[in-house]
Structures are given as C-alpha cells and as structure tokens.
Amino acid sequence: MSLIFRLAGAGNRLGPIGCQFMRHDKSGLISFVRPVTLKAQAAQPPKEEGHDERNMRLKRPQSPHLTIYAPQLTSMLSISHRFTGMALSAYVIALGIGAIVLPESIPDYIEKLECLEIGEVGISIIKFFLAFPLSYHFWNGIRHLLWDTGRFLTIKEVYITGYIMLTLAIATAIGLTMLCVPPEEEQREE
C-alpha cells in the first residue's frame, strides 16, 4: 500500500511509464484504490452478560459434558489414579511440615494414637486407608508402564488389567495393614 502512495506522489518524476501507471481513468492503478473516510464515534461499552447468556443470545448450543457419559471402569480408574497421587502428595507434605513444626517426633504421636484405645479394628481401618493410595498408585503405575511398551492396549486387555490391578491394590493394602503389628500384640503372642 505504501508503494502505491509513493508512486502516486512521484507523479511526473517517474516519466511516461509512471504517469501511465498512475492515471486516474479505469486503466490505471489508482482506479483500484477506493477512497475511505473514517468517522470518529464514541466507544460502546460491552454488554454485561455472562457466558451462558451470551451463548443463548447468539443461539449457540450447550456442549455436552461428563454428565452425559455412563461411568466406565477405564475412566473411574484414571480419575482414581489422579486422586491417589494427590493423596500421596498430601501425605508427604503433611509429614514434612509436621516434622518441621511439631515439637515431638512422629513415633510419640503414634504412641499417643495407640493410647486413645481406638481398638484393633479401628487402627486397622486407619492403616488400610493410609496404605491403599500407595498400593493403588503403585500397581496402576505398573499398568501404565506396561501400556507404554505397547502391551495390553485392546479394550478387553485394558479391562482385564484394570481388574487385576484393583485386586492387587486391595490385597497389597490389606497385607500392609496386617504387616505392621503393634509391639504389645507381639508380646502377647509369645
């Protein structure tokens, strides 16, 4: 565009070729340039409307979301994998902050918890809920590593490995729960 204006301003300096090129009749380049006049107006403030109101005004359909899908094993295991990862991160953060801030060591707090006489079943339930995220995330991570090698990727194999992973995760969590027997019970058994 700037070239056109430079050529138009050059006028007779370009010689006979430039003058023919920039003629104002229908055969010249100037005939293609349309004069434009801009009129200044005050800016209009945007309408105060939300996302949904704007889409309804523009007659845009609402996109379907997760609520239209039936729960599937694959999606539930994926969501659970993320939640157990967040739980494990929360354990590490809580234990780290607790080690820095709390005046006593962690074994002292465990001893105080045992003194509450929650009972063997209560302590086992607490241990299970602490051990399950670790075992679930571990076994599902192994499953994902197997997928990275290109194995077990058909729908049937994905479901089979999902059920196997769930079984291993629950069994491992129960095993970890039963593995840690309080010292008082060990003395009673002897």
TrEMBL record:
> Which pathway is this protein engaged in?
Carbohydrate metabolism; tricarboxylic acid cycle
Q: Which PROSITE patterns match?
A: SDH_CYT_2 (PS01001)
Q: Does the keyword Metal-binding apply?
A: yes
What does the entry give for GO biological process?
mitochondrial electron transport, succinate to ubiquinone; tricarboxylic acid cycle
On the tree of life, the source organism's domain of life is Eukaryota
What's the protein's topology in the membrane?
Multi-pass membrane protein
Task: List the GO cellular component terms.
Answer: membrane; mitochondrion
Q: Which Pfam families match?
A: Sdh_cyt
State what protein this is by name. Uncharacterized protein
Q: What is the lineage of its organism?
A: Eukaryota, Metazoa, Ecdysozoa, Arthropoda, Hexapoda
